[in-house]
Each structure stands twice: as structure tokens, then as C-alpha cells.
Amino acid sequence: MPTLGAIADDFTGATDLATMLVGRGFRTVVAVGPDSLDGADPALTDADAVVVALKSRTAPVDEAVALSRRSLDALRALGCRRFYLKYCSTFDSTPRGNIGPVTDALLDALDARRTVVVPSFPATGRTVYRGRLFVHDELLDESPMRRHPLTPMLDSRVHRLLEPQTRRPVARVGLETVRSGPEALRAALDAPERSDALTVVDAVDDRDLAVIAAATEDFPLVTGAAGLAVGFEGAHRGAARSAPASRPGDPAVVLAGSASAATRAQVAHALDLLPHRRLDLAALRADFDGALAELTAFARRSWAADPGRPPLIYAVATPEDVEKETPAGAEPASDLVERALARCASHLVDAGARRLLVAGGETSGAVVSALRARTLAIGAPIAPGVTWARAEVAPSGRPETIDLALKSGNFGATDIFTTAWEQLA
Ligand SMILES: Nc1ncnc2c1ncn2[C@@H]1O[C@H](COP(=O)(O)OP(=O)(O)O)[C@@H](O)[C@H]1O
Ligand SMILES: O=C(O)[C@@H](O)C(=O)COP(=O)(O)O
């Protein structure tokens, strides 16, 4: 029976946390949305931890809160007693939410008064020092996250980002206290000014995260990126990862909807090596089905020409490709891109694709929902925060088992689109 329940605000974040938890000795399953939390499913009841993947990061606040509350109730019904709200290591949110409102709602539901806020994930270059969030050497608001199409991050002070989003006071604990050990940190968290607050805690390396995890072991709810789970200890060290569903040479495809800097570099690298097509937004607006049929035909031709070179279908190669203004009366580009890549994934699985690498959190949510997967079993790791997962899908009713990698826009080495497949060998 699972005892740890996590709620992730996007799909790449869910597999990011799940691969970390597997590495920490938790048999972990990702459930796609609260409706997949079926108490009779042995994949869930035999796990130590269940991570619910939501597409709630940029949803309207009420919807994000309702989805998270339903997930919490369903995780409790499965037996979970300790909860983890997983959001982005770059704290992706707006002044309205959704990190603050969801944290408030989960605390209320758990009858808890306070929690910690820990976006730090040093393995991917995210650290928090003096309350400021760094992405490698840059402050968050000086990093490419400043120009994110959905959640531009214009401040690096985590407390300032959170304050307008929550009803609770926002407090801070500095690195000096963390480095004094779990008892000192716990005393700081128990101080009256933090006893009903959301406390942003500095963490620069994995030892800091282990201290935070130890100091909050009995908190009903912790919040953060996947890094905090570095300090968790499950009972199944060396927990098995699921075997690949596909074989080398099976049709594979890369679908990239992210406009993030790392993905743009990965696209640029792959353009020289893989057959590729950029989504043509005008063509999609003029004839969605026709444009999709052309993309499917392109993928089929690529597989026939060389099964070793997966076709790449992408949305953005340079920042200028991001559509800033929607033509009057037209569907916003971000929705159109998600819808196109989701439909593309369905067509391609129907056409035989058994290995899909998807870049982008919102994009991954749209793709996995279109594929109608219910659970993801965590497979071979690819890079910090990125993993293969095995999924039963049924885009048009016929079940298939495929290998899926959901890559956060900003994660992964430049050559990930050409090298990730080696982990399936
Ligand atoms: N050309 C474009 N113009 C506008 N928005 C785009 C374009 N291409 C992609 N997008 C949108 O940008 C968003 C990227 O978000 P996401 O998939 O979460 O990537 P990341 O992981 O980098 O945040 C998606 O909603 C996607 O549809
Ligand atoms: O914590 C992280 O950075 C990732 O797990 C994550 O949430 C990434 O979000 P996207 O960049 O939108 O994929």
C-alpha cells in the first residue's frame, strides 16, 4: 500500500519526481490525473509512492485547486499518509498561482498549518540562497525563464513570487540554519513566526536538501521540486525499474513543443542529424487535419528510410518562432501547438510509433492525455529529472504498450534527442 502521495502540477514534473523516488528506494508509479487512482489497480496498491500527474500549472486557479484536492482525496483513499506537492524547480507560476492557492488548499484539507517551500534541485543547477532562486549561474529573472511563453519569471526572490499567491504568511530560513543541521532547522520552523507560514528554505546542495527532508519528516505536506526527495529514504533500495516495452528499430519520434532555451539547443543540434519538420501554424489554422496527415506521412517516410533516425517534429527553433500575438479571432498558438502535437502523437502511435520523446511540460500533458494512458511505470533514467517510462496507451481504443520520455523544456544535454534511445537498448 502506498504511504507517500505526490501531486505534480505537470507531467514532466511527475516523471521527474518519480524517477528520483525510485532512486531513493520507493517503488513508484505515476497516475495520470485523479481519475486514474483506482484502488483496485495492483500497479498502484503495490507501490510505495504514487505521483499524480496534473496539467494544472497554468490552469485557472479554481480548476487547479479542485484537481489537486480530488487527487489528495484519492491518494488518501489509497492509503497515503504523507504528501508532496511537486512544482517546477524554476517556480513556474503567476501572481495568481497556482503554487500558493494549491498549497493553501492542501494544507487546509490536511488540517495542517505550515509547510516548507523548496524549489532547489542542485542536480539540474537550481539552487536557493538568501531566498533567491538561481538557474546555474544566473538569477531566475535573468535566466531564459524571463521569456517563458506561459509563465515568465520576473523576480528571483521566491518569497516575493509566493506572497501574492497565498493567504498565509511567507517566511524564510537561511542557509546558515540549514547547515546547523535538522534540529536547528526544526527549531526555526517551530518558531511562532513560522508556525502557520509557508517557509522558503535555502538549499544549495544535496546535503542541504537531506537536512530539510529530515527536519520535516513528520510534516503531512512538503512542497518543492524533485530535489527535496534526495533526502527521502524508501524501503526498497535498488527498486526495479520497468523494462522497455519496445525493441531497437521500433518506430520512434521526438515531439518538441517547448520553447525553452535547453530545448531550442537540443532542436538545433538535432536538425543536422534527424529528419525534421517544424509545425506550420498557418497551415494548421487553415487545414488542421490536412497538416496532421502530412506530418504523419513524413514520419512514416522517415521510419522507412532509416529506422535508426527518429523524426523530429518541433514548434520552436529560435525565440523569434514564438508567436507573440494571435491573429484576430484565431486559436492562441500555445493551444494550437499542444493540440497539434497531441493529435500527432495519437496518429503516430496508430501508425506504429512505440518510442516517444516529448519535450515540454504542457506539451507532455496534452500528449499523454490524448494517448489515454492511465499509469506510467518508471524505466531507465536518461538525465537528471528525465526518464523513460512504460505506458499502456489507447489513442483510438486499441491498447498498445509504448516507451515514453517526458522531458522538461529546460532539462537534458544538448544531444538528448539523438542519445536518449541508448537507454532503451
Ligand atoms: N510558436 C509558438 N508560439 C507560441 N507558443 C508556443 C509556440 N510553440 C510552442 N508554444 C507553447 O509554449 C508552451 C511551452 O510550454 P511547455 O510545453 O510546458 O514547455 P516547457 O517545458 O519549456 O515549459 C506550450 O504551451 C506550447 O504550446
Ligand atoms: O522541476 C522541474 O524543473 C521540472 O520537473 C518541471 O516541472 C519542468 O517543467 P517544464 O519545464 O514545464 O517541463
TrEMBL record:
SUPFAM superfamilies to which the protein is assigned, alphabetical: YgbK-like
Classification via Gene3D superfamilies: Four-carbon acid sugar kinase, nucleotide binding domain (3.40.980.20), Putative sugar-binding, N-terminal domain (3.40.50.10840)
Protein's UniProt keywords contain Nucleotide-binding: yes
Location of the Four-carbon acid sugar kinase nucleotide binding domain: 253-417
Record-level Gene Ontology MF annotations: ATP binding; kinase activity
Amino-acid biosynthesis as UniProt keyword: no
Chemical reaction(s) catalysed: 3-dehydro-L-erythronate + ATP = 3-dehydro-4-O-phospho-L-erythronate + ADP + H(+); 3-dehydro-D-erythronate + ATP = 3-dehydro-4-O-phospho-D-erythronate + ADP + H(+)
Protein keywords: ATP-binding, Carbohydrate metabolism, Kinase, Nucleotide-binding, Transferase
Pfam families recorded: NBD_C, SBD_N
EC number(s) given by UniProt: 2.7.1.217
Domain Four-carbon acid sugar kinase N-terminal: 4-229
Family to which this protein belongs: Belongs to the four-carbon acid sugar kinase family.
NCBIfam families cross-referenced by the UniProt entry: OxoTetrKin (NF043035)
Described purpose of this protein according to its UniProt entry: Catalyzes the ATP-dependent phosphorylation of 3-oxo-tetronate to 3-oxo-tetronate 4-phosphate.
Protein name: 3-oxo-tetronate kinase
